[in-house]
Amino acid sequence: MSKIKFYSNPMSRGRVVRWMLEELAVPYELEILEFGQSIKSPDYLAINPMGKVPAIKHGDIIVTEVAAICAYLADQFPEKKLAPPPQSAERGAYYRWLFFMAGPFEMSTSAKAYGWRIDESNAPAVGCGRIGDAADVLESVLQKGPYICGEQFTAADIVVSSYVGWEMMQKNLEPRPAFEAYVARTEARPAAKRANQLDDALLASRTAEPEAALPA
Questions:
Q1: Considering 38, 102, 146, 213, which has the largest number of Cβ atoms within 10 A of its Cβ?
Q2: pLDDT tops 90 at residue 186
Q3: What does the alpha-carbon distance between residue 91 and residue 103 come to, in Å, rounded to a whole number?
Q4: Could you tell me the CA-to-CA distances from 212 to 147, 198, 204, 208 in Å, in that order?
Q5: Global pTM value
């Protein structure tokens, strides 16, 4: 099977995909892209014309976007059981919450972070709705079981936990008990800890080298 090449930066959403790769425990090659520099190089723009990370190349297949990468990898390694069986009821929930986080949740938290107006006058026309509505919906499902699809930990949990944890840390999302308990439970997994350690070590090494500092 072709080796996975993983394009990332430790100060990006690439940390989510790193967790996914560590859960899979498969070999991968990491290439760090620098913001404002190699991330906009012709070579990388041939991989992702958006000039953003993360991205993966698996043989001749290129996948970008966090949720898409995680879903793709789960399907490529079914023996790792990071996606519910295709014909199961849980598969519907799996897709639902992957796309919910990539769509309504991230958009609504971005609106909160940057002061974009979403209120009763325009919420029906805005695909993401209001952040309070997104939070309420997410809380309702996380109160029902240990994981987003019930009893099975999946790639969807990697995405949901990563985004919820980040937005609580950034104070764009109210730290409700259901959110805090869920993030604590999922981030206690060995692969999550290992992924954080790897990216934190990269950050520490970059901090120690002034020439590696991110551009303004």
A1: 102
A2: yes
A3: 18
A4: 38, 17, 11, 8
A5: 0.93
